Amino acid sequence: MSLLKLDIYAVRNIQQESIIPSPAINLIVGKNASGKSALIEAIFILGRAKSFRSSTIKPVINFVQSHLIVSAQTLQANGSQMHLGIQLDGKNIEIHINQQLKQRRSDLAYALPLQLIHPKSYELLDAGSQMRREFLDWGVFNNDENFLPVWRRFKKALSQRNALLKTRRLEQINVWDKELVYYGTIVDCYRQQYLEKFKPVFIKIIGRFLALDGIDLKLVSGWDTAKEFSHVLTEDQDRDLRYGFTHSGPHRGDFQLLVNNRLAKDFVSRGQLKLLVMSLKLAQVQLLVNEQSQAGCILIDDFAAELDVINRAKLLRYLSEMDCQVFITATEAIDFGDLSQIKNYKMFHVEQGSIKPV
Ligand SMILES: Nc1ncnc2c1ncn2[C@@H]1O[C@H](COP(=O)(O)OP(=O)(O)O)[C@@H](O)[C@H]1O
Ligand SMILES: [Mg+2]
Q: How many domains, the chain?
């Protein structure tokens, strides 16, 4: 998948811009506050129907406009072209795929798998479990389209059960317990299978950046897996009733990154941690390329802020070998280092919201 043509209207300081990106590497250069992150944000909005910089869409819409629009002509893995479009006004979302109105954000997400690396991404390994759960589920979601309906049924059972716990309607809880156990166990299986496939890909990539032996990834299911999930729910029932929510289950799922059986985040250096996170993100895209030749886009905001010169060069070389479209921002062209070995790249200059090929 790659963006053949991208149109942006009223995203931050970008008024109206249209660009023809490279199917491989796109280097975005511009001074601070020129609109580089706004460009990355626009692409992200097209794939996810939300921003990564603000929890609501209102601040993203250009001050003097009432709505924003991002659209793109894309080339899909099967060689067909697809037109994607999204319009947001802070209240309503309108999604179009090939001129047809769509109801679900997941339609966009399947058509435009996006992997974002920005300064906040480096919290992945030391933040709470939600970020890692979302990371894991993004991978499962893109690897197997059967996952999403199961995940939705699980979420529904969970929210029904939690509502009943709050109103203490015990008889009905047992009905939802069955659903929760059934779909929860499948969600857990999907995650387990995904992590097993993901592990060797990740270990290969991290090997290019770090000499660390004994790396392992371990799924945390969200309940004591020495017991059946259904038994744990029964055991937890008093506590669940007291607090009004379900304590155990895949909604508490997580994964651990271990180095020689110790949690990496507890002892690796800050620099190593960043490289581990970056490799985790790249490995998800690499796995998609390997399994479905559906690479999607990699977005890297503030390239130089997070990596030293040597690792930046290694990353750029890796990205150019990968069959994948990439957008990378930096304040100076020299931040990208020596570009003589990088094939098929395009550079854009951003100034006061205007984007021009260099
Ligand atoms: N809703 C908005 N409308 C207009 N301009 C905005 C809006 N939100 C932010 N800006 C401005 O857009 C500019 C670009 O910001 P940003 O994309 O973060 O720049 P960069 O990543 O290049 O440093 C900034 O000057 C910012 O003040
Ligand atoms: Mg920025």
A: 1
